[in-house]
Amino acid sequence: MKKSLFIIPLLLLFACSNTEKYEHVSVYVVETLGENAGYKKVNDLTNVVEGKNYITVNTKSIEDFYDKDGNYKRTEIIASDYTSSDITNVGHGEDLKEELQKPSTILIPEDKRETFKLNDMTEEEKERIKKHILSYTDNLSKK
């Protein structure tokens, strides 16, 4: 009995230790279609944790929406979590969202209206974007 109490946590430790973690920071402008046609400016932070039998994706973003003429419409602060397990064949997701009435993205030139992506960001710029996004999304609550 004592051996099994020791082995179970050990097996769980090894099962969880083969994970890969990724973090991606994005700054871009993309066209929006439909009745809200125009474009949006986005600061995005995505974290992925991938194990042998599961994946967890956490995305946090600030999205400033504009109409075709460049008039500001609104800002959405979004935090999304998704987990999927191959063992249980169950996926679970949750989205938290808040709307603001002031442009809140950073590091995107004001005059950028066409598709744009800030490439080759420095580590300092990535850290600045990350802190900026977290300052907005960490205060989101379930409503």
What does this structure look like?
With 143 residues, this protein is of the alpha+beta class. It has one domain. 22% of the residues lie in helices and 47% in strands. It has two helices and six strands, in the order H-E-E-E-E-E-E-H. The chain has a six-stranded antiparallel beta sheet, covered by helices on one side. It is globular. The N terminus is likely disordered.
Order of helices and strands: HEEEEEEH
Stretches where pLDDT falls below 50 for ≥5 residues? 1-14
Strand order of the largest sheet: 5-4-3-2-1-6
Shape: globular
Topology of this protein?
Blueprint: H1 2-17, E1 20-32, E2 38-50, E3 54-67, E4 72-85, E5 90-100, E6 116-117, H2 123-137
Antiparallel strand pairs: 1-2, 1-6, 2-3, 3-4, 4-5
Quick structural summary:
The protein is of the alpha+beta class. The chain contains 2 helices and 6 strands. It is 22% helix and 47% strand.
Key words describing this protein structure:
alpha+beta, disordered N terminus, globular, 47% strand, six-stranded antiparallel β-sheet, 143 residues
